[in-house]
Amino acid sequence: xxxxxxxxxxxxxxxxxxxxxxxxxxxxxxxxxxxxxxxxxxxxxxxxxxxxxxxxxxxxxxxxxxxxxxxxxxxxxxxxxxxxxxxxxxxxxxxxxxxxxxxxxxxxxxxxxxxxxxxxxxxxxxxxxxxxxxxxxxxxxxxxxxxxxxxxxxxxxxxxxxxxxxxxxxxxxxxxxxxxxxxxxxxxxxxxxxxxxxxxxxxxxxxxxxxxxxxxxxxxxxxxxxxxxxxxxxxxxxxxxx
Length: 242
Prior knowledge:
Layout: H1 2-24, H2 29-48, H3 50-147, H4 150-165, H5 170-179, H6 184-193, H7 198-212, H8 217-226, H9 231-239
């Protein structure tokens, strides 16, 4: 710093000396040399001044700190922005997933309702068809019954009366109706339309015979065959006797 002051003073003296030389008409060489030496000394003093170096270093450090602080702030801002974007993305994914699940649930519910409606429609159609068929059958039977001659109906009613009284085979019941004076077609109508289980009739006939007298198995079987039960009906009776 001292050298710089001397240089500054020498520079000033040289300037004054140069101005005075203009007025006195003396040489300009010495004043110019003094100015040049003073300038050089001033520059050297400034360069060698530790205060200036400290200021320069301080400025550099301060600039570095400012840059560092700015960099850290930028990094924090970028990190915050990334977190915000990530959070927004996660929220968007959650919302999209929820909307997808709701849409799938809605489609599934609509499909189930559609299938249920179709099943109910099919069931209703089947019930209506079954009802229509039943009514048609009933109407047909009613029509047929209304067309059945009176004597045929009487033969059928008589067949039920005989079966309530005792057990008959199909052929014996037919013969009995013929014996009662019904024509062949009326007796056959009764046999074809009487609702009875001929196997159970054979079994009941076997039980009735055993209540009346004792039979061997073969004798009882032969008696059932004699009463014109079929071999299958007679065997059913033998196999199911109590």
